[in-house]
Amino acid sequence: MKINQFIRERRKELSMTQEQMAACLGVSSPAVHKWEKGVTYPDITLLPALARLLRTDINTLLSFQEDLTEIEIEHFMNVVDKTAQEQGYETAFQMALDKIQEYPTCDKLLHVLTYYLEGALFLYDVPQQERYKNVLEGFYLRLSKSETAEIRETAIVMLISYNRNRGDFAKAEELIRSLPFSRMDQEEQLAVLYTHQGKYEEAMKLWEHRVLSGVTRIQTALMNMMEIALKEERQEDAVFYADLYETISKQCHVVKWVAYTAQMQLAAALRDSDRCLSVLAKMLPAMKECWKPQESPLYRHLDGRDNTAFSKKIEDTLFRDLVNGEEFAFVRETAEFDRLMAENIIDAF
Q1: Domain coverage including residue 144
Q2: What span, in angstroms and rounded, lies between the C-alpha atoms of 35 and 296?
Q3: pLDDT (tens digit, 9 = 90+) per residue, 30-58?
Q4: Are residue 209 and residue 284 in the same domain, yes or no?
Q5: CB 320 within 8 A of CB 261
Q6: What predicted TM-score, i.e. pTM, was given to this entire model?
């Protein structure tokens, strides 16, 4: 609520007229009228007396709010994403900056918006990304000093990536060594404790989260091992890692299309048309299926969300790369490629 609205409503709640308020504060009635209309504002020297007269504190009078609630942040995040889709990344970016400036101490807001803006650069294929990344890196630096451990550590991980990509390996290593030991043991101990207390649902949430986190770690490791094998020209090992990536992903019931990402990357690296087409024939239809984690016994207690919108964005990005990207130029002249595109492109664009 704005200050003019607060003054008007609070004055009425106290059954006070504008003339009475003006007399108590030593100002004119028209001055109070202008305050309530939002035409002018009370002089700063009047704020303590005005707050006492309205039986409130200065923070409330000024509608001061240190942080947004998680619900408010989530709602604003949805507005920013809708803006990015309808009006473009630049407009959404400026909207996010305005909100961050309005709540400069709200780490949760800064954390959510920064990670969204980072991901949206890729999802919406934003041109001239460097100027945005410079701002985002500054936000990560701020978040790396957050009092919230989770926010602080994830920000440091992003700074490691930024420094690694620009070739500042010394700084990247310094940041890596600044990270604390994993808190997985704490999570495990809590899960065991909850089990002993009979809090089975709480325990299952922790174990399921650990399974999902573990799968993600394994996927990341296998993808990087495959890339190294390709650089060292160990093709047989690279195929093994890609196959294992697919098998583990399927057995652990993660998002269906994700299981094929290593195979796709391998096919592109080898410029293997047959392998690429075979993977696309499975991956593209899988992208149309939403992931509902609660349907699997592995994630029944997780607060999963429908990832259809996210998968659609990834699908659009993949189609864009397939149609225009140099990485897939080798496969575009095949008849099978044309057939797959004809079957799937309608839903992609």
Answers
A1: 70-178
A2: 59
A3: 999 998 888 888 888 888 888 888 888 87
A4: yes
A5: no
A6: 0.60
